[in-house]
Design brief:
four-stranded mixed β-sheet, four-stranded antiparallel β-sheet
């Protein structure tokens, strides 16, 4: 009996030790997006243990073949670095920033967002805002001085092709496009941006200067954002004026009463005064 109790106690203690360890094995989540030449290769989330690196997160991605996870990534799903004969290749960012360490030296925290992309180091990563019918595209770019010290600066994305549903625009010097009023209807609109690098295509593939927006990216226009000329609920100011001017107009006296109403009142007052004067003479 004592031996059975001892065995049961040992088994219970072992379970108590192993359960927290198993629970702690994967207790943080990070998002991973992998972008090739103009298209997403992977976009999802992986679960990791505390202290995991970017390399660990990329190794946890399923159905994507990555070469160089032990040091420097050279190939993803057959797309090799240096395809265009220059410094083009695979780069990574975490939470929008370019780390100064390798993928196995960057320790992640819960909720981090990893971006692995093919391109040049100075490839612009679009950030989008929308207000009053204007789309603005900017990128937080990193430059380094001779000592290797980084400096971040927000720059407009200039000369890029933007699509708003089926309409096509080109960003100006401020990284902006103005959407035609008739296209600013209430609801979700598909938005994309594209700008190719100044390289000749290789095997029909292009190097991009701007990272494509995430697949399925949309901008939602609220009812409050739609101008009167677009909304069907209320007529525009011009339409309201036209509706008023199409009705017969009555001159205004300036005090809010039509001219014929003021004249009628004056006539009534005059008649009353005349009657009073006649009574006095009798």
């Amino acid at each position: 009996m004592k031996k059975s109790v001892a065995c049961f106690t040992a088994l219970l203690l072992t379970m108590l030790v192993l359960v927290p360890a198993a629970a702690a094995a994967e207790n943080m989540n990070v998002s991973v997006r992998i972008v090739g030449l103009g298209e997403d290769i992977y976009n999802g989330e992986v679960s990791l243990a505390d202290g995991s690196s970017v390399g660990d997160a990329l190794a946890a991605v399923e159905d994507v073949e990555i070469v160089g996870l032990d040091s420097y990534i050279t190939t993803v799903n057959g797309l090799e670095a240096g395809l265009f004969g220059g410094w083009d290749g695979w780069n990574y960012r975490v939470n929008g920033k370019s780390p100064s360490v390798g993928i196995n030296d960057y320790v992640l925290t819960d909720g981090d967002a990893i971006l692995l992309y093919y391109g040049m180091f100075d490839m612009q990563i679009p950030e989008v805002s929308y207000a009053d019918g204007v789309l603005t595209f900017t990128s937080t770019d990193t430059t380094y001085d001779s000592s290797g010290n980084p400096t971040e600066q927000v720059n407009p994305i200039v000369g890029a092709t933007v699509r708003w549903d089926d309409a096509v625009y080109t960003t100006d010097e401020n990284g902006q496009v103005t959407i035609a009023e008739e296209l600013r209807t209430v609801g979700a609109h598909a938005v994309s941006i594209e700008k190719k690098a100044e390289n000749e295509p290789v095997d029909g593939k292009y190097l991009y200067a701007v990272l494509p927006l995430e697949s399925g990216y949309t901008v939602t226009v609220e009812a409050a954002d739609v101008s009167d000329s677009v909304s069907e609920a209320e007529p525009s100011e011009a339409e309201s004026s036209a509706a008023v001017s199409s009705e017969p107009q009555t001159p205004d006296t300036g005090d809010g009463l039509p001219a014929y109403t003021a004249a009628a009142l004056m006539l009534v007052v005059s008649l009353a005064m005349l009657r009073r004067a006649v009574r006095k003479t009798r």
